[in-house]
């Protein structure tokens, strides 16, 4: 048998980068094509799955995200984390090609517009999350994440002093066979798709 059997062909990076760009557009289009009321139901189901997976959140810091472009809306779950004695946090882009910083967020906190007009907490010291919930654009069979192409999550995970539990969240339509993982890509620990 071919000793390479089972290993995938790895195209050169410029080709992969072009492919990822096209794949992002396709996957975001599919996500937005899911009717809003179905997405709302999916968001509730994802929150339940996160509770089953993560368990007691008291005393733990969980980073989420402010949803846009059809991402699951986990803001009600963020409020429930806060209500159970956990700390919810949101990512903040400080600069391109730099790691994200996380700031604690409680419902009602003042927000300001960050990159792409995504709201971010206007004030507060950085926190280090125990759990990072990352929205998927795509996810592959080995739990490598395709995001929006900024490389922010990979850079952030590489920069944290202790590795958090990383959970990707999204819809079943976002599964793909491979993202052609590169040395900078860090696989997620868990994936919750509905
Ligand atoms: N809701 C939500 N908030 C989030 C994220 C997310 O995925 N979802 N992020 C997760 O990381 C961070 C923002 N991610 C971003 C990723 C890329 C670009 C960006 O400017 N992209 C370039 C294309 C890059 C390329 O293809 O080379 C662009 O649009 O011009 C901006 C923000 C933080 N906040
Ligand atoms: N730890 C890192 N150090 C240096 N460069 C990095 C690192 N992680 C990612 N990059 C660079 O960031 C760029 C985008 O990476 P990639 O295609 O993996 O983004 P993504 O995971 O889809 O985006 P995001 O995490 O923002 O949602 C690539 O050019 C990559 O080389």
Question: Sheet with the most strands?
Answer: 7 strands, mixed
Strand order of the largest sheet: 6-3-2-1-7-10-11
Residue runs with pLDDT of under 50 for 5 or more positions:
1-5
CATH superfamily: NagB/RpiA/CoA transferase-like
Bound molecules: ligand FFO, adenosine-5'-triphosphate
Counting helices, strands and paired strands, the structural category is alpha/beta
Proportion of beta-strand residues: 15-25%
CATH topology value: Rossmann fold
Question: What is the rounded distance between the termini?
Answer: 38 Å
Order of secondary-structure elements = HHEHEEEEEEEEHEE
Provide mean pLDDT, rounded: 96
CATH architectural name: 3-Layer(aba) Sandwich
Q: What's the helix count?
A: 4
Can you walk me through this structure?
With 194 residues, this protein is an alpha/beta fold. It contains 4 helices and 11 strands. Helices cover 29% and strands 21% of the residues. The strands form 3 sheets. Strands 6-3-2-1-7-10-11 form a 7-stranded mixed β-sheet. It has a two-stranded antiparallel sheet with strand order 4-5. Strand 4 (111-113) and strand 5 (119-121) form a beta hairpin. The model is unreliable at 1-5 (pLDDT under 50). The ligand Nc1nc2c(c(=O)[nH]1)N(C=O)[C@@H](CNc1ccc(C(=O)N[C@@H](CCC(=O)O)C(=O)O)cc1)CN2 binds next to helix 4.
How do the helices and strands line up, and which of them pair or pack?
Layout: H1 13-33, H2 36-54, E1 61-63, H3 75-83, E2 87-92, E3 101-104, E4 111-113, E5 119-121, E6 126-127, E7 131-135, E8 138-139, E9 145-146, H4 152-159, E10 165-170, E11 190-193
Parallel strand pairs: 1-2, 1-7, 7-10, 10-11
Antiparallel strand pairs: 2-3, 3-6, 4-5, 8-9
Bound molecules: the ligand Nc1nc2c(c(=O)[nH]1)N(C=O)[C@@H](CNc1ccc(C(=O)N[C@@H](CCC(=O)O)C(=O)O)cc1)CN2 and adenosine-5'-triphosphate.
